[in-house]
Amino acid sequence: MKSDQKIIAAMAACTMGVGILAACGGGSASSSDGKVYFLNTKPEIVDQLQELASAYTKETGIKVDIETAASGTSNQTLTSELSKTDGPSMFNIAGFDQYAKFKKYLEPVQDSEAYKLLTDEGKSYAFKDGDEAYSIPYAAEWYGIIYNKKIIRDYCAKSYAVIKSVDDITDYQIMKAVMDSIQEHKADLGLNGAVSTPGLDASDNYRFSAHMTRIPMFYELKDDGVKFTLDITGKYMGNYKDLWDTMVKDSPTESSMISSVTYEDSTAEFSSGKVAFYPNGVWAYTQIKGNGVADEDLGMLPYFMGIDGEEEYGPAAVYDANWAINKNASDKDKKASLDFIKWIVSSDTGKKTLAKEMGFAVPFTTFGDDEQPDNPLVAAAKVWSDDKGKKTVYSANIPGQQWMDNISNALVEYTQGTGRWDAVTDAFAKSWKTEWTAYKDSTGMLPPSDKLE
After folding, report:
1. Cβ atoms < 10 Å from Cβ of 104
2. 45, 166, 302, 332: which could join 34 in a potential S-S bond, CB 3.0 to 4.6 Å?
């Protein structure tokens, strides 16, 4: 039995690895068993997915093909692959924009055994239309500013330190002072910089166009008391600018070179212990672990930006990771895919890989407390709510890749000195309405304007 894992872009496929799996029971599965073609859009977990595919095929004889869209190409790749007669039987969707864009391909899943294994909270985050659910959320994730506790301890022991411990970092002004101070004394501390490079290469810019932007978005929506509105002004983008300028200035890379720095480059700066801070989410643990930063030295701060009231909040939370079933797949392949999902969330092998190796906090009744992730970044994020009593920043739905590209392109121009900050704010606010209006025109849908507490 063969299980193929590929990284695919919108126009051409680039094979990253092919695993030949042992046949189950000395023979291949019959066509009556169906097969699984999973189009994954989370490149950071391709190795773990391959392990799951291999284990499942060995146990059941069912063929599982895994293909993974390259970073920044999920919409193009999904559009291309789902239009094929032999398209994926299951795939990822992330955010309301993808739900709206690809709803015509979505099979209702509320009656499946896999969906019924979700917790009530997990079911509440599924994409729904009336009584029908169209996705299976599989991960609660948090993002903020990851930091190296050892570096901060070493810094705090210095006479020039502006804090006594990391617990003193309670707002943006203190965090900025620490970053600036570490950058000033980086040679003495044996570092390359205070903050990992905020890369704007296509593989990395989502951290700043999809995640960091949600902080000023949240506070503007909070002021309006709703989870969605077309009328965004960019009220807090000046706060975003302050943090962005600090991260660029206090990173190891000249501002003119930011656009060429990749996700791997930036992650390596942190995971090798050469910078103190790294803006990212709990999913980054799979790339950090086993390198130069011990698990016990991983912490997370909120995205402090100097916005009034931010001291009441911890890191941001997001339930963007969803599995979906292609309604155009054969009944056998749809069943095979739902059986594969059920196996992932109920078998010892699947649960261990999902929670312990991928590091996801998972919303399924099949997981006991001791089966949740050992991901120290999850624990670090939850400290803010569980121990410090802070609220969680709500992650607003965003209108997709084009909006992100508009922001990142404007950020590149601004950062390398060829553009003005006003263009970044326009990309954030004006492009927001333009892109959501286009979604409404094409899908007839907008995110619900529910009350935001």
Report:
1. 10
2. 332
